[in-house]
Amino acid sequence: MYEELIKLINICLADNEISEKERTVIFNKAKQLGISEEECEVIIDSMVAKVTNKITKSDLQTSHNFTPKTITKISPPELNMTLVLEKEKQQHIENQKLYEIQRADLQKDLSRLKQEMTLLESENADKYMNAFCVLNDNVLVEVENDLTNKSKFKVTLNDCKLNYSKISKLATQIDLVNFYSELLCNANWDMYSYKKKLEKSKKTLKYLIWIFAIFLWIGSMNEVQLLFSLSFCGLSIAIVLKLINRGRLKSPIKIVSSDIQSAIIEYFNNKFNFDLFFELAKTYKLAQKI
Amino acid sequence: MENLTITIEDIKSFNKKMVTLNTSLDLKEQEVNELSKKIEKEKNCIKKLDKSFELEKMLQKLPCQAYGSVTFYNLMNEKFLQFDPEQFNKITRFLELIEKTELKYRALYLKSVEQYTINVTDSCFVDCERRIRIYRTCILLCQFSLQKLIKIK
How many Cα neighbours within 13 Å face the side chain of A16? Predict the structure, then answer.
């Protein structure tokens, strides 16, 4: 009964779909066979669904055509640099050893030289330290004398003692002229006589004025005595004023600097850079000390 | 005065001796310093070469290229019908990411091969190792998910 109906439906589904006309024919056949309309509807639907499903799967299979990817294998790059690197390393190791040997030799030389220096120093230390002390004392005395002679007042240089623990330091560091320039610039200067003379001149002026006043007060003197006393007082005042002016007009720093320069030149019989010394004097604030 | 002149002369000659000694000492010290610098340079070169050896060993262990994504791509397309289209698209995107990683790894590997004897401090070596680790993890994840999906279906 059903087989006939299914055959008919299959015939109708030859074009994969059922038209209205075909549907009416199928329903009429179902009536003839004694199949209800609902039953026939279910059979039609299931058979149509089967056909549709088949179509979609086959469609998908045909639409997903892909070209498989291929692997292009690349040969690995050469990494066998070990031999070259080993050779290079060996070369560096040899160089390092060579340099280390050279350095050891040099260090030996260095320690030998240091020993030589220490020996020279220890052998001559006392001798040369004494010599430097004598030289130092002599220079200071000479400079003092020279300044005193030129400036007509007494100069003392304090704190000009050598203060070196090692003779080598002293011997290698100094250029004697520059050394003494700096030493003298740093020294404490004392020109006490200059100040004392100034004070003394003022006192003398006072005494002279008093004497003149006493002469005038006596009043019993004759013309010759008056003339004599007036000329005596005038001369004294002139001398005192000259002394005062000398101190005031001339710059002490210029006197001292130039005098030190000449003293040192005379002592060492050497050329001396006065400008350098003057700069040094300024730097070390010699002017303030004076 | 005569004694003093002699003393000054002595001092001057002593000065000269000391200056000569000091000069030669300075020269020797300078030479020693230069040699020390050279030794240091050689040591650095040796260190660099040792590092090159290490890097070569590391590079020998690493693959020169990675192509796991191709295998997965072909497999997935062969079994296309077993996947939901959405799942298929997601895994395809993941495979694209793996493919990019493969390309980057290849570039880094080549750079490392080029650089390992020249510049041992370059960052490419570390990056290369890192990239291959990431790649391996991705491949494992992909493999796992594909196995699951195919089995379920």
Answer: 6
